[in-house]
Amino acid sequence: MYKTHVGRGIQLLLIFFLLAGGGGCGKRRISPAVELPGYKPELIFEDDFRLGLSNWFLGGEGRVGWTQDSTFQLNPGKDTLTTVLWSNQSFGDNLLIEYEIFFPNALGMHWVYFSQERLEGKSITEKALPSRETWNYFIRQELKGYEVGLHCWNSSGEFLGGSKLRKNPGGILLSGISFDPCQENRKYVIDVVKTGNRIRVYVDGILVHDVKDRGGFGPVYIKGQIGFGIRGKENAFYVLLNYVRIFQLKPY
Fold first, then answer.
1. 124: Cα separation from own chain's centroid
2. pTM score, whole prediction
3. Which residues pair with 114 in a beta bridge?
C-alpha cells in the first residue's frame, strides 16, 4: 500500500512538472489577444518594464516611474507637449503590437506610434531629439509613420471626439470613428496589426479600425520604431503600461 501511494505521488508530481513547462523543454508560449486567420504569430519582443528602460528612451518633458507593485508609469510634462516613450530598436512589417494600458482619469490623451522613422529614413535617437519648442512639430512633420489616437480628452477634461488613425508627415487621416473605444477610465488591451498596407486596431478584442494605406500620400511604410505617447494635465494625468509584446506574423 505504501509503495502504491508513493508511486502515484511521483506520477502526479511529474505531470505537474511537465504541465508547468519544466525540464527546459522550450520557451513559454504566448499568444496575442486576437486571432488572425491566415497568420501564425511568433513572439519576438516582450517587456514588462520591471528591469528598467533598457529597451526605450523618453522624448519630450515627461517623467517615468514605478508604482508600489512595480507597474511602469508614464507621466506627461507640460499640458501642451506630447511625451513619447520610443523603442530603441526598429521592427519590420507584418507585425502585431499588443500592450496593456490603464487610464486613471479623463485629463489627457494617448497615441501609439508605429513604423516610425525620420524623413530621411534614419532611426529616431535620443541624441537627435529636438528642443521642446519644436517637439510637437517634430512628431507630426519630421517623422514618417503611423499613429492612432485613443482616450481622447484634453487637459481640461473636454472630450475631443472619436479615435483617429493618421499617417505622417502631415497628420493625414486614414481612418476615423465617431466614438472613443477607450473612453472609460480603466485598463485596456490594445492590438495594432500591420500587414503590408493594411492596418487594424483592436481594443479588448473588438476591431475599431481596419484601413488600407493606398499610397496616395507617399509610400507605404514597412519598418520603423514604435512609441507610446501621452499629453495631458501635468501632475494629474498618467498611464500605466503593464506589458508590451510584439509578434511577427507569418502567413500560412
1. 17
2. 0.87
3. 146
